[in-house]
Design a protein that fits this description.
5 helices, mainly alpha, 0% strand, 95 residues, single chain, 434 Repressor (Amino-terminal Domain), elongated
Length: 95
């Protein structure tokens, strides 16, 4: 058994950049992940069922299911911004 440890590499703060995505794509993926997480938190904080969340967000229950299950590939950044606004959250970029 090898007792050597793998080196620990400090994160850049963006897991997608750390995984090798180009900087622009990594930034968009990071924003999408952040918005999805906050939308899931919002749904949970209000105690909404998926049907109630769907009504509030103006989408189908199946779309809410995709959202809460983290199926990020099914949501554009634009759609996540719209859903966040419909949920009553302000969306702003910070440098």
């Amino acid at each position: 058994m090898n007792n050597e440890r793998e080196p620990v590499i400090e994160s850049s703060g963006n897991v997608f950049a750390d995984l090798g995505f180009d900087p622009a794509e990594a930034a968009v993926l990071q924003m999408r992940a952040e918005l999805m997480g906050r939308l899931r938190e919002e749904i949970h904080a209000h105690g909404w069922t998926q049907a109630q969340a769907a009504e509030r967000l103006g989408v189908s229950q199946a779309r809410v299911s995709d959202l809460v299950r983290g199926k990020w590939e099914k949501f554009s950044l634009d759609m996540l911004v719209r859903l966040s606004e419909r949920a009553g959250r302000k969306v702003a970029l910070a440098a």
